[in-house]
Amino acid sequence: MEIKVIGSHCCPDTLYALHKLAEAGAAIDFVDILASHADLKQYLALRDSDPLYKDIRGTERLGIPCFIKEDGSKTLDLAEVLK
Asked: What was the pLDDT predicted at 1?
């Protein structure tokens, strides 16, 4: 399984997800939004426009980690990715 994880090393939920995905043997492409201005801008554009974030926008939640599966589908649910 290949998975792109958008998150931050400062986020406990992201760290937990990375650990669980590594345990499951996933090939992880990790994008740390706090390590790169360009990555942060790209993530904010995703968060501002993708329907996945309709319940997140306008709240204090950041919406990470975000998972992009091999087929291009996106989810915020680690359990869905680990199925």
From this structure: 87
Cα 79 to Cα 58: distance, rounded to the nearest angstrom: 25
Query: What is the enclosing helix (H) or strand (E) of 67?
Result: strand 66-69
15, two tokens: 């760290």
Given this model, what pLDDT does residue 9 score? 95
Report the relative pairing of strands 74-75 and 27-32 from DSSP bridges: unpaired
Backbone angles phi, psi at 68, to 5 degrees: -115, 115
Alpha helices (H) in 3-54, listed in sequence order: 12-23, 37-49
Q: How far apart (Å, rounded) are the C-alpha atoms in residues 26 and 79? A: 14
